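Hey team,

Filing this mostly as a record. A colleague (T.K.) asked me to run one chain through the structure pipeline before their review meeting, and I want the input and output archived in the tracker in case anyone asks later how it was produced. No errors, nothing strange. Just documentation.

Input sequence:
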Amino acid sequence: MVYGDKERLAQVIVNILQNAIKYNKPNGNVNIALEVQPQEVTVRIRDTGIGIPSEDKARIFERFYRVDKDRSRSVGGTGLGLAIVKHILEAHQAHFGVESEVGVGTEIWFVLKR
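Output structure:
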């Protein structure tokens, strides 16, 4: 069990999963992992997608920010999904981040208090 708004936390997971699917390679994988510790739970969502360049990682949680404007237009979306994720996680005082390598995939993780 974690403390938080279950509907908002579900929205976090859905938004991250939507990105993991949208920016994945054909026949790619999406993995969800939970690490339960006595005081916290870590959620990790990893894909085998296109990845995020190092210079863009710090900005992906900004409103309307799109890594590749041309590719983003073709897959749709508003550029708000990860900004909403950031807002909800900050409201839950969660730690979160992203690890990514271009051509290999992306992992977005967050830690919630129990």
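Quick notes for T.K.: The chain has four helices and four strands. Residues 6-113 form a domain with the Heat Shock Protein 90 fold (CATH 3.30.565.10).
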